[in-house]
Amino acid sequence: MNQHLDEKEADSVLLSDVDKAHRPHTLATYLKFIIPSLIGFLFFLTPIVVDGKVTIGMGVLADQLNELTQDYLPAFATSLLVISALIALYTALFKPRWSQQDTTLAEIFTPKGIWLVLRLAGAIFATMILFEVGPEWVWNRNTGGVMMLDLAPVLITFFFFAAILLPFLVDFGFMEFIGTLVRNAFQKTFRLPGRSSIDAIASWLGSGTVGVLITTHQYEQGFYSKREACVIATNFSIASIAFSLLVSSFIGLDHLFVPFYLTVVASGLVAAIITPRLPPLCWKSDDYSGSGKQINESVPSNHSLYSWGLEQALRRAETAPSPSTLARSCLMNVVDILFGLLPLVIAIGTVSLALVEYTPIFTWLSYPLIPLLDLLQLPESAKAAPAMLVGFADMFLPAVLGKGIESELTRFVIACVSMTQLIYMSEVGVLLLKSKIPLNLLELLAIFVIRTLITLPIIALIAHTLVF
After folding, report:
1. Which end of the chain is more exposed for a tag (fewer CB within 10 A), N or C?
2. CA separation for the pair 36, 387 (Å, rounded)
3. What is the C-alpha separation between 320 and 357, in angstroms, rounded?
4. Same domain, yes or no, for 340 and 366?
5. Which among 446, 97, 427 is positioned nearest to 239, based on CA atoms?
């Protein structure tokens, strides 16, 4: 994710150089575009059905690795977190020469301020959870136990394959090709580059975190402006089909999955149109990262959308990283996720779940929502209100709280809203805060609330008029 193009490479992929004389591309360039892009498409964007569940190739690999190693992954995760914390503490205290250099490795292992505190907390929490020592609010099965026994193994295996396979999708021209084809629709509807459609599709078929990874990668390389990256990451990192099936089944709505998912899609599209036009997203500038602007999706008059998309894909393929550079980038991505991201997920997720389990804070915060839910004619509004807000901690928690509600209508609304809120601190939120995308915690909270207030009435209206 820290891979940057040098000036020569950047010049070769700028789409503003439309005045360059057309030159034919070699067969090798076509193959360099087609083969890696096909691999990326097959693993990230091709839905497959395994044991009756819709998933993607990368998800199958992650699930198989998880099954083989699930008995050892919590201990492995704890070891990673402890090693990460010790190295970070060592560099903070003794400042070795390698940690002062401008390298990816130094950036990963020299967190500062709150990030250092969270990394240390992640290691301490993981140890307490593994051995069930210390305060129960840390290692309880419904708090730290969820993070270490349920979420951490999935994250390790999922991100391991995502980091390795992601370059096939984004570094060999596929983004340029698809982005050009759908540019008009995305520019007019969402004021975004066409290539952002890949982020949405990858999220839809794989995971919201995959979408965030793609967006972060593209922003750091200069393909998205600050505003575009913020909008895409918070409005298009949608829940996957597989996760949606899990939630609908858990909350007892699997017999309504088709109307449930169509409702999620419809309300999510409306939120994606409105939210970016409101603060804080509308305040973001269209400046680019240190790499500078790398793309302009304008189509020359002598090209069709298809021919220009292919031309840009081939140009991108020509400047794609070498196998050694690609391998190093993949390795650094894996190291960054395991040693940098995982401690933050464990620390923030454990505290968030403890607040839900042991304090009434979410109940108190949800009081203003009760009149709104009554206005929308949702039964058991007092029970439903906390479920509307607890999704900020973790996307699965609304289903946990809503499962005990008798009204199927209310459970339907809760499940749909949880799928459209998108911002949750146990995973996506931490990933965004750790990335270079310019979003802070208060902004993420504001976006979460805005999306909730936009989608809740829409979902309730659909539920009343079309589903029940």
Report:
1. C
2. 43
3. 48
4. no
5. 427
Separation of alpha carbons 389 and 400, rounded Å: 13
Are 344 and 376 in a shared domain?
Answer: no
Measure the CA–CA gap between 306 and 400, rounded to whole angstroms. Answer: 46
Of 294, 324, 349, at which residue does a domain stop? 349
Whether residue 285 sits in one domain with residue 143: yes
Read off the tokens for 380: 């058991």
401 in the same domain as 312: no
- Cα separation, 360 vs 366, whole angstroms: 10
Q: How confident is the model at residue 128 (pLDDT cuts 50, 70, 90)?
A: very high
Say which DSSP state 53 is in.
Answer: E
Are residue 296 and residue 427 in the same domain, yes or no? no
d(CA 148, CA 125): 9
Q: What is the C-alpha separation between 432 and 97, in angstroms, rounded? A: 29
Residue 13's pLDDT is 42
Tokens (6 digits) for 451: 């999306």
- The rounded distance, in Å, linking the Cα atoms of 147 and 183 is 39
Q: pLDDT per residue over 240-263, tens digit each?
A: 666 777 788 778 887 888 889 889
Report the percent of the chain where pLDDT is more than 90. Answer: 41
- Residue 1 covered by a domain: no
322 and 414 belong to one structural domain:
no
395: closest CA among 242, 287, 284, 190?
242
Could you give the residue ranges of the DSSP H alpha helices within 191-237? Answer: 196-205, 208-220, 226-235
Flag whether 2 is in a domain. Answer: no
Q: Please enumerate in sequence order all residues whose Cβ is within 8 A of that of 139, keeping only pairs 6 or more positions apart, or say none.
A: 128, 129, 132, 133, 145
Check whether residue 340 and residue 381 sit in a common domain: no
Number of domains in the chain: 2
Distance CA(275)–CA(296), nearest Å, equals 24
Domain limits for position 306: 7-349
Q: By the 8 A CB rule, do 343 and 123 touch?
A: yes
314, 349, 384 - which closes a domain? 349
d(CA 169, CA 166): 5
- Average pLDDT over the chain, rounded to an integer: 85
Contact 395, 244 (CB under 8 A): no
Instruction: Determine the number of helices (DSSP H) and then strands (DSSP E) in the chain.
Output: 26, 2
Neighbours of 237 (CB within 10 A): 26
